[in-house]
Amino acid sequence: MAYWLLRSEPDAYSWDDLVRDGETEWNGVRNATARIHLKAMVPGDRAIFYHSNTERACVGVMEITRAWQPDGDDGKWASVAVKPVAPLPRPVPLADIKAEPKLAEMMMLKQSRLSCSAVTPEEWAVVMHMAGATDAAAA
DNA sequence: GCCAACGTTGGC
DNA sequence: GCCAACGTTGGC
């Protein structure tokens, strides 16, 4: 299983919106690097939901429910389907991620504007620990 | 509101 | 194909 981080401005689409919807199409990504990651996602992969901009914190865990399909008028972009797994018991602010040496190499820090980035299993475990997440959400 | 990072566009 | 100009994003 692979781990990912998907960011969204909560004003545009938030964790609460995802919980309300039950499942959603993660579309509208218009960045070549992000697309590489979207196309690498397979059902069962886990992803951190990160609120950018106004909140700047990881807020929940999602599961990829369907591999990518073409997105956009010309079909040259990609989108996947996701569903919520569990909210993080304690949201993990960006400031805490930056302050944690074990997360210094995280892709989201290296490329701060990238909306879909990869997370290593080690990084995933650290973030879940910081969030106080139990095994159910962390696995 | 400002600024840095970075992707995209367009002229050459 | 290169590179400067420009626009957008996101953190502060």
From TrEMBL:
**InterPro entries on file:** 5hmC_binding, EVE_domain, PUA-like_sf, THYN1-like_EVE
Specify the EVE domain's residue ranges: 2-130
Q: Which SUPFAM superfamilies match?
A: PUA domain-like (SSF88697)
Q: Which Pfam families match?
A: EVE
The identity of this protein, by name, is: EVE domain-containing protein
